Amino acid sequence: QVQLEDSGGGLVQTGGSLGLSCAASGRTGSSYAMGWLRQAPGKERESVAALWGDENTYYADSVKGRFTISRDTAKNTVHLQMNNLKPEDTAVYYCAAGRSRYAYTYWGQGTQVTVSS
Q1: Each residue of 10-42: b (16+ CB within 10 Å) or e?
Q2: Which of 60, 71, 101, 102 can bridge 33 by disulfide, Cβ–Cβ 3.0-4.6 Å?
Q3: Which among 18, 34, 24, 26 is positioned nearest to 99, based on CA atoms?
Q4: How confident is the model at residue 74 (pLDDT cuts 50, 70, 90)?
Q5: Helices of type H across 1-117
């Protein structure tokens, strides 16, 4: 059983930065895909970034060049650094883990990110 606890959300102005963290308990390791997804009010949940295997990464087009996902295997944490934030980045962000980035099994509780214009 894997449990995920995500944190680090908050309120920031346009152009600002935030870092999200996801602490995983239980065995995950590099064999698991770890990702961040977000859901804005009235919109479908979308994948923002993912990391799997030997540092393979995925980024949604809307965040490329602004967001960076990284993993600290020793601490069993995944971090999402978000720079140059825009109002359209406002959403609840969820950490997720699973055998594939297309089918996550475990989810964090979500953390709110609000970007003011």
Answers
A1: eebeeeeebebbbbbeeebeeebbbbbbbeeee
A2: 101
A3: 34
A4: confident
A5: none
